[in-house]
Amino acid sequence: MQRLIYRISQHLVFTPPDSRTCPPRRTDLDWLRIMLFGLLISHHIGMFYVDAWGWHAKSQYSVVWLDKLLLLVEPWRMPAIWLISGVAIRFVLAKVSPVRFVMLRTYHLLLPLLFGVLVIVPPQLYIEMTAKGEIALNYWQFLQAFFSDAVTGKEGTFSNYPHGIWPHIDVNHLWYLRSLWYYSLALVCMLPILNSSWLESMRRRLVLGNGAIAVGILAMPVIAIEFLWAEAPSRYPIGLLFLLYGYMLGWQPQAWQKIADHVKHFCVAYGLCWLALVIFYQYVWLDARAESIIPTWVQLVGNLLYGSCRLLGVLMMLGFAQTVFTSKRCQNSRWLTYGVDAVYPFYILHQTIILVAGFYLTQLNLGIAVESSLLVLVTITGCFVGYELVKRVDILRPCFGLKMQGQYSMVSQKVGYTCSACLLLPLIWRLI
Prior knowledge:
By secondary structure, this protein is mainly alpha-helical. Helices cover about 70% and strands about 0% of the residues. It is built from 19 helices and no strands.
């Protein structure tokens, strides 16, 4: 049956045409993915001290220049993660049928999402509401209200937080898992187009043509999204776009070689673009945002600079990864294996640790140097300790995106998958 499904999927162009020539695993992208999630954690620690940008809770201290520093990585950090996700999907679809891919994706993404929104995220809402003075409950009392109000549908304590998967139960920083599941389903539906011969021909022409023209063509959809989604979060369409870029360009060796050859040019171009963005942000955008209506020309220039920084930053980091992380030492490093497995647990745990630790640390009046140093130490230590615990408890591993290690009978495996499916059905119903 599996062979039949695979042959049918090949006939319908659901399987990549180059699936029989699967290249070796891209360890440079593994290293870059680890680095990008590390930057994500650093970014969220920084958000605790940036006064100009909203977040769930804030320190009593602020750093006036930190928002400009965070802008160095903010435009391209998530797009680069999405592009790597697209490359990974192409590798997976070369080995399994689309049906099995959807099943695996649902299991590996939605179990961590369900566990996260019910266990990991609630402390973030508790800290946010406590910091705003909206509640005066201990955490146990908060949990009772949190789940009872969700079941009964009452607004009550959480009237200011009505949106989410369920009433006031939202994804917070786990939006990446939810979106990756959505985008995986969308990509499967688009496979006949993505794997078509005419699109393959266009990709080859783009890769083999003039590099500057290719970058311009790739930049146009990015900048267009920034314009079209000026009044709404553009991170969702940008995520899907870069996921598709990763899928379409992931197996083009000429494209990777061109990116590596021109990494210095990308670094210079990004540096100039970032400098222009920071100057514009500091002397134009902040003043315009203080007004009731932002002038159209300010939005246009801001979107153009920010969209350009997105693509140039991604290309710069892809070239950087090929330059730095392709040595045999990097490919065979035990830290690579550790980091690949630790990425999801670190990602799932980090924001809750930052908010809880930061909220209580800032009340001690330690000064910004001591407080921020302790927050970094507690966050890193908490993530490592959490991961070391999770990887040793087999039943917790799927809740953090890890495969179970134990040897189980076929009956036990079927029971486990059946129970997981029953748990996920209400979530899938809400997401759809």
